[in-house]
Amino acid sequence: MTQQVRTHGATSSVSKYATVRDGGEIGYRLLAGTGTARFALIHSLAVDRHLWEWTAEQLLAAGDVLLFDCRGHGASSGINPPFTAEQFAGDLAGAIR
Asked: What is the pTM (predicted TM-score) of this model?
């Protein structure tokens, strides 16, 4: 994943996009919490990061929360299906670097 990031939206709900090495874009949202912990909330198939919004709000007192759209879901592009667990893991690893 490259460090290229584009954004749209406003205030704390800004969605960001990271470009992965195969050219796809991964959508994510990083919420700044007040604690020192860091969380990455990953959805299951057939949903997107919005599944975790309530949970993310509850975790903000403990720390930052990353809401991540897996490739082919939500705001992420669907480049190079079929998707594998290894691709999803690589996308997440790149987003948190």
From this structure: 0.72
* 5-95 fold: Rossmann fold (3.40.50)
Could you read off the pLDDT of 55-83 as tens digits, one per residue? 899 999 999 998 888 787 766 767 777 87
Reported as type and span, the H/E element at residue 69 is: none
pLDDT(47) > 50 = yes
Sorted by where each begins, the domain ranges of the chain are 5-95
Q: What is the 3-state secondary structure (H, E, C) of 5-56?
A: EEEECCHHHCEEEEECCCCCEEEEEEECCCCCEEEEEECCCCCCHHHHHHHH
pLDDT of residue 14: 62
C-alpha distances in angstroms, 40 versus 45, 77, 81, 90? 16, 19, 23, 14
| Cβ neighbour number for residue 36 with a 10 Å cutoff | 8
Q: Tell me how far the alpha carbon of residue 3 is from its chain's centroid.
A: 14
Q: Are 53 and 59 in contact (CB under 8 A)?
A: no
